[in-house]
């Protein structure tokens, strides 16, 4: 729905509604949005008869053992290393206890929500019912309003805070729709910044790597050879939300920029999720639509071939929330996470069937999509703009994929210690946690990203060549724009304000903070030394070659470095499978246990928020992580593990 609908609603329902009538003497605050509404303007009270799809996330069992479980199968020193869990074991281990179901169900019935209206998820970790605004306001002792998005004009219904009875609170993770407003943003690539190099079509060799990073340059830099195996079940996955792959560019890229022959009819396996389509009709140099997919697939395919790629095209591109969050992707992989059959957030995640004109008319996909061993993603959100409960619950889902043998890699972002939050890619930082609004274009506090802040994924930063020759090594990527600072490009990195420091990372982060302490106070960044830090690793992320609409470009972004690193992991898994072993699952414990397998990056930084940001230092740092891959050393490590 668009702003015109919102204005009609405001006209019809502008009358003042009475406050909820529930007896609230035993209610306690459960969640409250920090600061002002990020990119949303509160309008009128929601009409009391409007229907809300209410979903209550039940406290899952054994999540306090999440780190123990994931490290048991991913830590090289563990006797159970590589013994991945089945999906059934994951679902059974984390299913909520019976007293949790019974306690919440009893409360709903006493509140007038009859049991015949309750629906449980497949994994019984969600309970859902459709209720009016009036019922929901009374249930949560809150008030709902219409909120209009400042850029898209779309609207959502939400509240600023909500309450639960003290006797029920211990059973509830969080409820929706309540305080959720923020959506997902693709990480910008740098096509508009880099001039077309169409005259260099067919450029080969290593003499011009500083101008265009080709597959040959990457092979020489990281010392890996062409792929020569294609193990069944080891197909690499790449998720796309806002971008679409233009297939005619693939054979042109293969013909001009790969020394290994790749048939011109080679295309990725297409996996449509909730109306994802194979083509978009808006390919042009003005919008840059298609650049992200070109960057992801052309480079990755050339690295891993003859292994195959999977394109997970998520969302119909019509829904105003089609660039939503990662939940509808998780739905398609795991039926136990789906809406009503799952875990989406109304007014944060897209709705299917799509009510918008021309939208996908089928139901939300719930399970059935193939699961790859390695996934690469170039999208993220602003940590401070999302409810903590929402981030924690989704982070646990990435952990569950890790338990099943999946490696998940996310781009660390292109704004240094800042963040990008709108269509113009304007940087935003944060104000002090004690002062609102928390997300602020003019803020000075560093702004971490989600889900790169999740300790169960691998966050990838970006580097570039130090000099004209490959042998000169690498530095942290730096591309300032004196004319328009919003186009500055620095590798994203920092310290989470939500997630704790995982044990696998503790020694590396402590070493950095002890030997090279950043000279910023606690109101500038989380300097506690007890928080999740990122990135974990890096790879080349500037002047990476793509063919776009028949022309050659050099493109940059951590959205370039992430699929490069993910492709190298896929090659390493091929090596293990050929040796009769299984793929590595969650990567980080193994990576941090072997810093010698990386090219340490000690030059550069990631400015932002009116500061110089962090600096590269020997060892791990919050600019380039452990460094960039040394394939022969990583191969030795991978093959030495059981």
UniProtKB/TrEMBL annotation:
One of its GO terms (molecular function) is metal ion binding. SUPFAM superfamilies: Protease propeptides/inhibitors, Subtilisin-like. Residues 212-641 form the Peptidase S53 domain. Its main location: secreted. GO terms for cellular component: extracellular region. Transmembrane segments: none annotated. Binds 1 Ca(2+) ion per subunit. It holds the Pfam family Pro-kuma_activ. InterPro entries: Peptidase_S8/S53_dom_sf, S53_propep, Sedolisin_dom, Tripeptidyl-peptidase_I. The active site is at residues 292, 296, 559. It catalyses: Release of an N-terminal tripeptide from a polypeptide. Residues 1-18 form the signal peptide. It is an enzyme of class 3 (hydrolase). Its cofactor is Ca(2+). Its EC number is 3.4.14.10. SMART domains: Pro-kuma_activ. It is found in: Secreted, Extracellular space. Ca(2+) binds at residues 600-601, 619, 621. Keywords: Calcium, Glycoprotein, Hydrolase, Metal-binding, Protease, Secreted, Serine protease, Signal, Virulence, Zymogen. Secreted tripeptidyl-peptidase which degrades proteins at acidic pHs and is involved in virulence. This is tripeptidyl-peptidase II. It comes from Cudoniella acicularis.
């Amino acid at each position: 729905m668009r702003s015109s609908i919102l204005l009609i609603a405001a006209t019809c329902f502008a009358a003042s509604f009475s406050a909820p009538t529930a007896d609230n003497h035993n209610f306690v605050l459960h969640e409250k949005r920090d600061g002002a509404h990020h990119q949303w303007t509160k309008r009128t009270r929601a009409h009391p008869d409007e229907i809300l799809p209410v979903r209550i996330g039940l406290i899952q069992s054994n999540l306090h053992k999440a780190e123990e479980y994931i490290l048991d199968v991913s830590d090289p020193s563990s006797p159970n290393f590589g013994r991945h869990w089945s999906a059934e074991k994951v679902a059974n281990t984390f299913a909520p206890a019976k007293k949790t179901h019974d306690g919440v169900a009893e409360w709903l019935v006493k509140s007038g929500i009859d049991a015949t209206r309750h629906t449980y998820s497949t994994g019984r970790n969600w309970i859902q019912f459709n209720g009016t605004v009036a019922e929901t306001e009374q249930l949560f002792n809150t008030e709902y309003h219409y909120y209009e998005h400042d850029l898209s004009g779309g609207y959502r219904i939400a509240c600023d805070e909500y309450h639960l009875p003290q006797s029920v609170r211990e059973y509830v993770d969080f409820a929706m729709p309540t305080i959720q407003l923020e959506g997902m943003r693709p990480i910008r690539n740098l096509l508009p910044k880099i001039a077309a190099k169409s005259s260099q079509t067919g450029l080969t060799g290593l003499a011009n790597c500083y101008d265009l990073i080709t597959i040959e340059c990457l092979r020489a830099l990281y010392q890996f050879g062409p792929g020569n195996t294609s193990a069944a079940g080891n197909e690499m996955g790449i998720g796309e939300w806002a971008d679409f792959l233009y297939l005619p560019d693939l054979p042109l890229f293969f013909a001009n920029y790969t020394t290994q022959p790749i048939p011109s009819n080679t295309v990725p396996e297409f996996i449509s999720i909730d109306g994802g389509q194979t083509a978009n009709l808006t390919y042009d140099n003005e919008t840059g639509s298609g650049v992200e997919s070109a960057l992801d697939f052309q480079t990755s395919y050339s690295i891993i071939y003859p292994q195959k790629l999977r394109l997970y095209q998520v969302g119909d591109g019509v829904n105003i929330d089609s660039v939503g969050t990662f939940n509808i992707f998780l739905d398609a992989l795991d039926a136990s996470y789906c809406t009503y059959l799952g875990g989406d957030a109304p007014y944060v995640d897209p709705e299917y069937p799509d009510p918008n004109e021309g939208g996908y008319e089928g139901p939300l996909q719930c399970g059935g999509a193939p699961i790859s061993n390695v996934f690469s993603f170039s999208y993220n959100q602003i940590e401070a703009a999302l409810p903590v409960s929402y981030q924690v619950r989704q982070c646990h889902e990435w952990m569950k994929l890790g338990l099943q043998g999946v490696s998940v890699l996310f781009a660390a972002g292109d704004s240094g210690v800042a963040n990008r939050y709108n269509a113009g890619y304007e940087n935003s930082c944060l104000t002090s946690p004690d002062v609102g609004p928390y997300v602020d274009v003019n803020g000075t506090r560093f702004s971490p990203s989600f889900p790169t802040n999740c300790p169960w994924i691998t966050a990838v930063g970006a580097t570039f060549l130090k000099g004209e020759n490959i042998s000169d090594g690498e530095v942290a990527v730096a591309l300032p724009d004196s004319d328009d600072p919003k186009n500055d490009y620095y590798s994203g990195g920092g310290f989470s304000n939500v997630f704790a420091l995982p044990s696998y990372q503790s020694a590396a982060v402590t070493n950095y903070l002890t030997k090279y302490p950043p000279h910023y106070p606690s109101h500038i960044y989380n300097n506690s030394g007890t928080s999740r830090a990122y990135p974990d690793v890096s790879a080349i992320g500037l002047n990476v070659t793509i063919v776009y609409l028949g022309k050659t470009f050099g493109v940059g972004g951590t959205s370039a470095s992430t699929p490069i690193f993910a492709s190298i992991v896929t090659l390493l898994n091929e090596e293990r499978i050929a040796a009769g072993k299984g793929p590595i699952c969650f990567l980080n414990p193994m990576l941090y246990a072997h810093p010698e397998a990386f090219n340490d990056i000690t030059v550069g930084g990631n400015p932002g928020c009116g500061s110089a940001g962090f600096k590269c230092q020997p060892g791990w740092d919050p600019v380039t992580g452990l460094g960039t891959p040394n394939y022969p050393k990583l191969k030795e490590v991978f093959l030495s593990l059981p």
